[in-house]
Known about the structure:
This protein is α/β, with parallel strands linked by helices. The chain has 3 domains: 9-265, P-loop containing nucleotide triphosphate hydrolases (Rossmann fold), CATH 3.40.50.300; 276-454, Rossmann fold, CATH 3.40.50; 476-510, no CATH class. 36% of the residues lie in helices and 20% in strands. The chain has helices at residues 31-38, 42-56, 63-73, 75-81, 84-89, 109-123, 136-150, 153-157, 198-202, 217-221, 225-235, 267-272, 290-308, 323-341, 345-350, 362-367, 410-418, 440-454; strands at 97-103, 128-133, 169-171, 181-186, 209-214, 243-248, 252-253, 256-257, 261-265, 278-282, 315-320, 352-355, 380-384, 396-401, 433-437, 476-490, 496-510. The strands form 4 sheets. It has a 7-stranded parallel beta sheet with strand order 3-4-2-5-6-1-9. The chain has a 6-stranded parallel beta sheet with strand order 10-15-14-11-13-12. A two-stranded antiparallel sheet has the order 7-8. Helix 16 (362-367) links the parallel strand 12 (352-355) and strand 13. Helix 2 packs parallel to helix 6 and helix 3 (63-73) packs across helix 4. The protein is globular, with a radius of gyration of 30 Å. It starts with 30 loop residues before the first helix and ends with a strand.
Amino acid sequence: MLDQKRFLNQDLVLEVSKNIDPAVFNMDKYEGFVDALCGERNYQKEAIKTTLRYMLGGQYKNITELAEENYNSNDKLRDLYGSFTEMKRHLQLPDKLSCSIDLGTGTGKSYVIYGIARIMLAEGAVDHVLVVCPSTTIEAGLMEKFKLLSGDETLRSLLPGGSVIKNPHIINATESITTGTICVENCHALYEHVKSSIRESLSMKGDRTLVVNDETHHVYNQTGKDFKKWKEFLLDEDFDFRYVTGLSGTCYIKDEYFTDVICRYSLREAIEDGFVKSIDYVAQDTSNTQNEKFQKIYDNHIENKNTKYRMVKPLTILITKDIRACNKLTTDLIHFLSEREGISEEDAAKKVLEVTSSPKHKENVRKLQDVDRKDSPVEWITSVSMLTEGWDVKNVFQIVPHEERAFDSKLLIAQVLGRGLRIPELYLGQKPVVTVFNHDRWSGRIKHLVDEVLEIENRIYSYPVKKKPDYNFIIHNIDYAKLAETEEYKQEKEYEFKKRFYYTHQTGSCS
Length: 511
């Protein structure tokens, strides 16, 4: 049997040279700004610094040069790809200064985006920044966050006095993208027939524009026509973009890790550092009927609600493979809650929020913004696996992949897990837990994927233990030695025989 080689994601991250000429780019003058922006989240600082060294350090013309440098120095990359030609084939934007940043969901990607954008503008490397995201929900969240940060006088004062653009204007593509702006738009605005200022403002200005793709796994997986158009936009020669970076907590093309990641802060690291919830993965569920499974999920939900996390309103989210399955699951769940709690189906329906891309659920998407509030009746969310990012919901404490197809790739697993990772303010520092409730019938087929996404390995921890003097004890070392003796026996007849036996001689010593 051929040996199977295992490649860890961290082994595939491209290392960016730290040997940067300060006359070309000096990161030191932005230390105060980055410290104030990121606080104690050092991984955010590292992501910002690494990306800026790559883009502004003058060492690389494009991602291909960085990839080749790493291929020549990294045995794991050579083992994985076999040749640099093969590795280059996996690069999505080989001729651009492009890269990806892998930050676990809930770890604050927006601060990294903002930090990179502000410093690129302050350096005068670009005139404008375009931040593209996959939905209007994410667009609204980024706009709100960026406007708040731009109004922070402390951040502004910490930028160097000679900054080319010190206070950028935050807009969307309904306004013209002029010098000194950060424009936030969703990918649907990239269509030529959609009325937006993007094409008119940025045509032939790609060398003076930084494009940042939020949730960049959509660009690389191209799971729909809108996302296919997103990548075509990045490659459009009419713009000829030079600087392109993307951020995601799910840097997978199905099960394969991205080839252009330059900085990584994994989900496992975020859990261990207490920045997101811990995950209790329940793989062994032997429920025979849907109602039996509903009952187990319900029991855990009530325990979260009445005991574990009663200071907030805990939510349970159930994920299905498509809209049709989600419709049926929602109906069945409402019926179960009605019978279990002795309430009308109308009242039970108020507790369940169905979220899909169907036009009839458009209002429900808006309601997601309020589900954490105690005055919201929603306790259960049913959704489709393809809509699993961009929800800034912190009260999710139970996740149920209802079908195997909703949980059958590293990309989907990371997206689904990401829905429950953010920590409510009232439980910061307490390491709360989100339960992922699986099914025994198919959990075995995907457990290895879950283990890889969560980086679950057998670990031995060594640490000093405070102890009292009476913890000391004596160890007895026993020396076992075999000694032989012989005895002779005579019988009445002339027969004679010898019997040899052994006994063990023990000597003891203490230490």
